[in-house]
């Protein structure tokens, strides 16, 4: 019990000192017939903190693309949160008990929402767009479901922003500006 209390106090301290940020789950009735996981995702406020703690050099990260992908996702989520907050929106994540997930969800003040899959490499765009389309289709089939207004793949290795024939936007991280 002492260890659990210590860990809780540490999490609280890190949050208070802006070392960590919590990304709450999105559960705004988008899928009324599906149970949505309610766990928050916890990130370092800046992904460079994780790099520093791991002594992750450029060479190490280039040799471990999975780790680089996690850090890239955290970087994008941090930027999306900052941009969303600037116009009164909120950043969430989505995962249900059928293992359907959306990396980032921005809910606008009027209740509309946007779904984002975050991928480091351009070779992952098709699979990410397919995932977004499947989730959107399932939500649209639910009479009580509210589908996303926009679906977007945020990509690290893409040179241009464009809209795919299926309606999913592909946007390079470099295009994010307030």
**Percent of sequence in beta strands:** 15-25%
Low-confidence stretches: none
Structural class: alpha/beta
Shape: globular
Number of domains: 1
Q: Can you summarize the main beta sheet?
A: 6 strands, mixed
- What integer value in Å does the Rg equal? 17 Å
The overall pLDDT average reads 86
How many H/I helical runs?
A: 5
Strand order of the largest sheet: 3-4-5-6-8-7
Summarize the structure.
The protein is built from 5 helices and 8 strands; from the N terminus they run αββαααβββαβββ.
Structure notes:
It is built from five helices and eight strands. With 178 residues, the protein is an alpha/beta fold. The protein has one domain (2-175). Strands 3-4-5-6-8-7 form a six-stranded mixed β-sheet, with helices on both faces. Strand 3 and strand 4 (101-107) form a beta hairpin. Helix 2 runs antiparallel to helix 4. The model has no long low-confidence stretch (mean pLDDT 86).
Describe the SSE topology.
Elements: H1 2-16, E1 20-23, E2 41-44, H2 47-53, H3 58-63, H4 65-86, E3 90-95, E4 101-107, E5 113-119, H5 125-141, E6 150-155, E7 162-163, E8 169-172
Parallel strand pairs: 5-6, 6-8
Antiparallel strand pairs: 1-2, 3-4, 4-5, 7-8
Helix pairs in contact: 2-4
List keywords for this structure.
DUF4143 domain-containing protein, six-stranded mixed beta sheet, 178 residues, two-stranded antiparallel ribbon
């Amino acid at each position: 019990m002492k260890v659990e209390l210590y860990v809780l106090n540490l999490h609280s301290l890190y949050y208070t000192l802006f070392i960590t940020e919590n990304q709450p789950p999105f559960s705004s009735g988008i899928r009324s017939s599906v149970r949505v996981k309610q766990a928050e995702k916890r990130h370092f406020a800046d992904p460079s903190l994780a790099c520093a703690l791991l002594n992750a050099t450029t060479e190490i990260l280039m040799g471990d693309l999975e780790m680089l992908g996690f850090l890239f996702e955290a970087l994008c989520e941090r930027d999306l949160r900052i941009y969303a907050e600037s116009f009164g929106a909120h950043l969430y994540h989505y995962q249900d008990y059928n293992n359907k997930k959306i990396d980032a969800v921005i809910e606008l003040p009027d209740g509309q929402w946007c779904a984002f899959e975050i991928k480091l490499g351009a070779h992952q765009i098709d699979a990410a767009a397919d995932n977004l389309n499947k989730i959107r289709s399932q939500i649209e089939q639910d009479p009580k479901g509210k589908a996303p207004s926009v679906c977007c793949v945020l990509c690290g290795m893409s040179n241009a922003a464009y809209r795919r024939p299926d309606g999913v936007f592909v946007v390079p991280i470099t295009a994010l500006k307030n």
